[in-house]
UniProtKB/TrEMBL annotation:
Signal peptide: none annotated. The lineage of its organism: Bacteria, Pseudomonadati, Pseudomonadota, Gammaproteobacteria, Cardiobacteriales. It comes from Ostreibacterium oceani. Residues 56-147 form the General secretion pathway GspH domain. The chain crosses the membrane at residues 20-43. This is Type II secretion system protein H. It comes from the Bacteria. GO terms for biological process: protein secretion by the type II secretion system.
Amino acid sequence: MTNAVNVNQSCTVKKSHDGFTLLEILIVLAIIGALSALVVPAIMAGRNHYLLAEETRTVAGVLRYTRSLAMTSQSERVVVFDMVNKTVTAPGERQNAIDGSIALDVLTAESEVEGDRAGIRFYPDGASSGGRVTLVLGEDKRAVDVVWMTGQVNILEEFDAL
């Protein structure tokens, strides 16, 4: 008995690939770029919408506060809008700055306009001089209406230009 060993046995070596090919990396980067081009504008539009809503609520809050102040103190009070510096100021309070990217327009009684400043006056009975504050950011716009007879402050998301 002889033990024969087959010397011609072939040995197969399996190669393993650790990592990615350049083509695979480029495809992934192209997909990420395409998704970014779609997502970033949507995020920015959402940010603008949120910013405009926040600034509109701030303006409405200052107006409502001033109306309440006029009624409780039984004296006239004026909210002042500085059109150059884009600020809103209630009597005796700090200035509230409106974001620089937002366009601000105030429609009020002529007697309440002085240079670059406009005001909305509130009376002790709750009535006001009336007016509309319009805030615009890109294609989005909102307004805060102040009813002259009652002094009621309303936020408008959809409105016709005056």
